[in-house]
Amino acid sequence: MEYLPILFTKRNYEFSLNTEFKIKSSPEKLTLLLEPLVFHFLCILNGSQQSDDFFNRLYKTIGENVDVNKDCEYLGNYFKIDPEQLVIPVQCFHSISTKLNKHYTIDNLILWIQSIQSKSILESYHYIKNQDDIPAFVLFDLMLRNPQYKEEFILQKDIWFHNLKPFALQRLGQTAILKSIVDNLVYYSIMFEISCLRDIIDLSFKFFKSSRTGVHVQLGDEYINEMIWNIAFYSSKYRDIEFPMVANAQETLVTHLTSIDKLSLKGYMGITTVISHVSRGKAERLLKVAERKFDLHNATSKEMVSYYIAQLCLADTPEEVVQVFNVATKKYDHSSKLWLVFIRRLNMLGLLDVARAKMILNKLISSKVSITSDMITELLRPVKDLFVFEDMIQSVDSKTSMLFLNKYIQLLYSHDSTVPVKKFRWDEETIEPDKKVSNIDDYVVTILQKHQTISIYHIGLILEGQAKRKAVSQVFQLYKSKLLDKQLSPNKQCLGALISAAYHDGEAEAWNGLVTAQAAIHEFQQHVRTNELGLIPSENLWKKYITLLDKYQQMSELSKIIKWWEDLNYNPSKRLLLTLLAALPIEISERHIKHHESANSSHDWQWPSINEFKGFIVNRNTA
After folding, report:
1. Separation of alpha carbons 93 and 66, rounded Å
2. Which long-range contacts (CB under 8 A, 24 or more apart) does 172-175 make?
3. Is the same domain home to 472 and 526?
């Protein structure tokens, strides 16, 4: 089933389908035939005639001459296809069902097909959630999808936890797909719910290794080392992630190695990269241990790329970053990962301006490096102007230009309600150079629906744009229709936009009898972590929340924040502490400052002095 997306993208091109198969009489082997059977059903429904050969061969081997006319009529009407095309395929389906003693019906087949053809994970699950004995390949299809919302990730995680045995039994000799599922869950756990990461790893590996589960899947030390590295690389995408949790997940992986000596150079570099965000000193010591332990002269190219990436993460001056990168690219100048980490380091050090971004983009194009979406995201961070954007997008090919779409949407909202639009690859129809877009929201939704699945990221992008234009009612309407009504969780961007809109006008009607300020506060408290699950806001989001509470004099909510931070083990900066203290009554703030050392859970915070606090108040009032 993993090849279906490739097949559908090549509908207008010549391609060849494999119609060979092997039959073995055991139920387990016969069960495996269901997947190619449904695959070729889908091919027929999408206009392929090559699958006829598969079904003719299969019918000669196991087919039974039974009357399937009613089923073919039913199936044909459902999918708008000639029933005559379905006679042999349906007979093959019934033959396998009979031999397996499963009593699968055409309704079962339709639901499997609908699930596989669905655009989203939630829609896919909708078709099969009430079915018993779902074939593993249908669940495999669902598990290998990219979740667009937190709820979709949580659903995948739960399906994985509850179906580990059938998944493993279906792929005992083929672990690649099991590894892909674990990798997919790890990637999206880091994106959506980092607190699930350790459990995903521990439960999966313990199950596969346990003698009590009835299955034994050997994923291998090489895969574990690769996973340790992948976790480091995936998490490097996010600036405000909880790196101690990432480190705990890596530590768990190390315990599943056959011995500690099996930790490879790449594994060491993965741990070093993560630890560099927690303790630079510890990371430097670990790097030196690895340098003594391994012969770098005989390391593979992938191992050496990971080594230089770890060095880039430890470099904290512009000169060090450039020096490490120059040494690395003398040998590995085609490594996309090296280039990406280099660009990220420039961004984090505040060195990536428009001129440098253009220069790096041109260098990437000329050096034939594979340009990824993450690279484009980083290179476009300093771009604030549509004219600069247009200049940069004109230098890339049409395929790469599609990676510019999200930034384009962001820039559109920086303009007024109408904006000149040039012809880009994502435009639904040819747009004259001087044509104006009168409704940015409709235009953005149109191009997103045409070219991408709308995700929580895109909803956050639109909400943020509307909040910048102070379109308060539109922000709350969109939030309600796309998230609240569908019981989907926001991301940090969505909450930030909601709070910004409420700050501009907190008295407008929102929903359920709440005004916008009340609704924004409720949503923040609903989705920010209080114990194990939920968002950990960035410093900027905490600041927005505090200033909203301050503006509308929500003193009881303001007074809960210090305890909230303590419960989360959150370490606020001095600037954020000052923002909170300035919002509280002065006598309470001064009492906190004077007695902060006696608060066991907050002794590491960067508490300001009384004089610093008073100076902050004066500067705020005169600003």
Report:
1. 11
2. 172/215, 172/217, 175/217, 175/218, 175/219
3. yes
Q: Which long-range contacts (CB under 8 A, 24 or more apart) does 116-120 make?
A: 116/1, 116/4, 116/38, 116/42, 116/141, 117/42, 119/453, 120/148, 120/152, 120/453
Q: How far apart are CA 415 and CA 406, in angstroms?
A: 15
Chain CA centroid to CA 194, Å: 11
Q: How many domains does the chain have?
A: 3
Q: Find out whether 275 and 247 touch, Cβ atoms under 8 Å.
A: yes
Chain center to CA of 25: 42
Identify the domain containing residue 566 by its residue range.
559-623
Enumerate residue ranges in the chain where pLDDT < 70. 1-29, 171-173, 416-422, 428-438, 597-603, 623
Q: Do 245 and 287 form a contact (C-beta atoms < 8 A)?
A: no
Partners of 437 in the β-ladder: 419
The distance of Cα 460 from the centroid of its chain, to the nearest Å, equals: 14
Tens of pLDDT, residue by residue over 423-463, are 777 775 545 555 556 678 888 888 887 877 889 999 999 99
* The length of the chain, given as a count of residues: 623
| pTM score of the predicted model | 0.91
Chosen domain end from 508, 538, 568: 538
Q: Which regions of 379-423 does DSSP assign to beta strands (E)? A: 419-420
CA pair distance 463, 482, nearest whole angstrom? 11
